[in-house]
Design a protein that fits this description.
The structure is a single chain. The chain is built from 14 helices and no strands. It is mostly helical.
């Protein structure tokens, strides 16, 4: 049972293991029926139902976790519960990682549906995994990340306005997230990872016209790099000795820039994979 959708994803916890179980079961539909690892796969399939239920239960929990945000859209009392309104949306442990896990299952499922062996699965098995990674399911997760990102951007704008009272305030990002009360830049705990996951789910994100400006302004990450020295000085960036790391620093942001520029140049929103992350998930 996942008690908090903000800590819904990691390869170290049941959600991550459940994702790998589902993916592996689907991938093995292409194997010969009596392959050498049939016994191991048979044991693995015993956990199919529990794995699907765990991911589906996490999706169902997200609206209840976000209900207080709907009652307090200004986010002024965001700290009345554990964590801020914009917290828990990063890749390594949060909602963005959970979204990416669903997208991985969705991609694996799309490949499996082309196989005759997929149709030999029980109808209930096919239906439950198809619902799990449907547009409706992804919309729940994307909506939560976007909602919290908008509240985080408002909070960030207020803090900048207070700090720079009477001074010119540069263009501020329309989306912002934090992790344990701090704002990071990189791909694991930072805004880059959250944006990357949203870019990967553009098939869902693009359906909501109200969110289109936020997608197009993903390049706002450049603003954070311009402010990195101030973040370090104010203590807002934890990794003061590792400003270039993929997890928390600017090397992760470079990957996001490459993704955005690729889409702008080609006019396509079919992007590349998340660096490092996909490699980990696809290891045999």
């Amino acid at each position: 049972m996942v008690k908090d959708a903000g800590h819904a994803w990691s390869l170290e916890i049941p959600i991550g293991l459940a994702t790998l179980v589902i993916m592996r079961c689907l991938e093995c539909l292409s194997h010969p029926r009596y392959s050498e690892d049939e016994n191991a796969l048979s044991n693995l399939r015993r956990y199919w139902k529990a794995s699907v239920n765990l991911l589906a239960g996490t999706i169902q929990k997200i609206p209840s976790d976000d209900a207080w945000l709907d009652r307090d859209p200004s986010g002024e009392h965001a700290n009345r519960q554990a964590g801020a309104a914009d917290d828990g949306c990063e890749v390594l442990y949060g909602r963005a990682g959970f979204l990416y896990a669903l997208l991985r299952v969705r991609k694996t499922l799309a490949e499996a549906t082309t196989l005759q062996s997929y149709n030999e699965l029980e109808r209930s098995q096919r239906e439950e995994v198809e619902v799990l990674v449907s547009d409706a399911s992804l919309e729940v997760v994307v909506g939560s990340i976007m909602k919290r990102g908008k509240l985080g951007a408002r909070s960030y704008a207020r803090s900048v306005a207070i700090e720079q009272s009477g001074k010119h305030i540069p263009s501020l990002p329309p989306l912002m997230w934090s992790w344990h009360g701090r704002r990071y830049l990189g791909g694991a705990h930072g805004v880059t990872g959250s944006v990357y996951a949203l870019l990967s789910a553009s098939c869902v994100l693009d359906q909501d016209a109200a969110n289109t400006p936020y997608f197009k302004k993903a390049i706002h990450l450049a603003h954070l790099v311009m402010q990195v020295d101030k973040f370090v000085q104010d203590g807002a960036m934890k990794a003061t000795d590792r400003p270039w790391t993929m997890y928390e620093g600017m090397s992760g942001m470079c990957c996001a820039w490459a993704e955005v520029l690729q889409r702008l140049s080609k006019g396509s929103r079919t992007g590349s994979s998340m660096p490092g992350y996909d490699d980990l998930l696809t290891v045999e």
